[in-house]
Amino acid sequence: MSKAVVQATWADVPHLSEQAQNELLASIPPYQRDARTKGIPQLGSGAIYPVAESDVLVQDFEIPAFYPRAYAMDVGWNRTACLWGARDNETGIVYLYSEYYRGQAEPVIHAQGIRSRGDWIPGVIDPASRGRNQFDGSRLIETYRELGLILTDSKNAVEAGIYETWQMLSNGRLKVFNSLVNWLMEFRIYQRDEKGKVVKQNDHLMDCMRYLVLSGLNAMTVKQSGQQAPPRRPRGWMGV
Hints:
Strand order of the largest sheet: 1-7-4-3-2-5-6
CATH architecture of the largest domain: 2-Layer Sandwich
Number of strands: 7
CATH class of the largest domain: Alpha Beta
Structural class: alpha/beta
Order of helices and strands: HHEEEEHEHEHEHH
């Protein structure tokens, strides 16, 4: 049996007058308004970030060179993800402007994709990566450093990170480019189960966003004139 999804907005419902729409809108929580008025899929009470997409998403623009930047990384064989952020120091707003989202590839492939966004940009990574293996049992953080990535461990306090991220999303200090389709997909389904625990599925970029808020903001920097990527370290190098 075939299936189809139809997305309808209030503009497609002629019997709703403007007055009726305004009255209904006033009675709907802000984080549900996109779902109710535009037909955009949205979780209900289980949503971890009860913020309307329209309050978060912005049109892409060219990031000025003087905006400090950093990225956050979450690794794994099924999915390796990165999320880049840049801060407008005048307003304090952080813009999530680029994403990397790929599975089932060797670290050298991921590193090439990450470095292509700017090999001078520092990153923070899930500290649990130290215990993860890929084929040869390499310690992934050291492997990625050898491949030229500038990485430090992120704090990984889940609830504290979620709270800080929610605060930034709610007060307009964290915005997201429209082009980040994988971020948006995860944002829409990021939820808690009936026991209040975070559902650990399809949340790689959500984790990256949390790492960026907890640790990446302090790591942000601007490109220095003539700056080059650090030399690749020999395999087995264990320094920071």
